[in-house]
Amino acid sequence: MKSIIPARHLLGHFVLFILTALFLLTVMRTAYALWQFPSVLEANAVLPLFLQGLRFDIALIGMVLFVPVVLGSLLSVTKYTRGLAKFVVLLFLTLGLLMILVLELMTPWFIHSAGVRPDLSLLADVDKPLHIITTVFKEHTVPLVIGLVVSFLILIAFILRLELNRFLRFRVFAPTGILMCLLGGLLCVMAIYSTFDLTQRALSPADSLISRDTMVNDLALNTPYKMLYSAASPFFNRAE
Fold first, then answer.
1. Which residues, other chains included, contact 92 with Cβ-Cβ below 8 Å and sequence gap of 6+?
2. Residue 235 and residue 142: Cα distance in Å, rounded?
3. Which residue range forms the structural domain that includes residue 40?
4. Torsion-angle region of 21 (φ positive above 0: left; ψ -120 to 50: alpha; else: beta)
5. Is the pTM of this model over 0.70?
6. What are the contacts of 215-218 at 24+ separation with CB within 8 A?
7. CA–centroid distance for 83 within its chain
8. Residuewise pLDDT in 10s, the chain (240 residues)
9. CA 116 to CA 214: how far, in whole Å?
10. Residue 84 falls inside a structural domain
11. How many independent structural domains does the chain possess?
12. Which of 72, 58, 91, 82 has its CA nearest to residue 185?
């Protein structure tokens, strides 16, 4: 039995990602709200900003975790696919956190210049991105360096907490691993939809309308969610 581990071994890593992502997204939204506090206060949207923002943060976490929870849990139950499960889970958790850090770090420039968080179309419209990056770095060297250093430290601390050498050294107990695959996958879908009733319309950026101010509405979103949604929306439209 020593060659089998409980499913809570996997669950602990997923919970670590959830708590880290929620903390980062909440801190960033708080920073943006303080930065734009007069607009947020004028729109009377302080509480709706964080309540609605939490829905989008949970939806983003569901998007990132769906594949590692479903595929990773399923692959972890056999000794032949355990190594692949480890790769899938660590890849998605690490890249997911890196995506959050990078996209939120670049968001202030778009809010300052365009008044909204960026999506793929806005990102594609950026002319001479290298020149813009150089200019922004020259004008805001200190906050950018601090942001990059803090982001790097957070990422390193998260990777160390994953305990790579101990992670999935043995296969997961099959019944609990399969249960986590099914139940965890369902929870991820409900998180993405932001409702227990999957017959209802799924959460979308249109649900960020908490005021008449477009910029304040966009603060309720998070940039990774907006990016992923804009990337997937053409497929949604085609399916309709």
1. 64, 65, 67, 68, 72
2. 41
3. 4-231
4. alpha
5. yes
6. 215/36, 215/39, 215/111, 215/115, 215/116, 216/36, 216/39, 216/40, 216/43, 216/45, 216/49, 218/111, 218/115, 218/116, 218/117
7. 25
8. 458 888 888 999 999 999 999 999 999 999 899 989 999 999 899 999 999 999 999 999 999 999 999 999 999 999 899 999 999 999 999 999 999 998 888 888 888 888 889 888 888 777 777 766 777 677 667 777 887 888 888 889 988 888 888 888 889 999 999 999 999 999 999 999 999 888 888 899 999 899 999 999 999 999 999 999 988 877 655 444
9. 7
10. yes
11. 1
12. 72
Structural domain contains residue 237: no
Q: Is residue 31 part of a domain?
A: yes
Q: Residue 218: name the closest of 121, 111, 125, 113 by CA.
A: 111
Tell me the residue type at 166.
Answer: R
Residue 147 lies in a domain: yes
Extract the tokens encoding 48.
């709706």
Q: What's the number of CA atoms in the CB half-sphere (13 Å) around residue 54?
A: 6
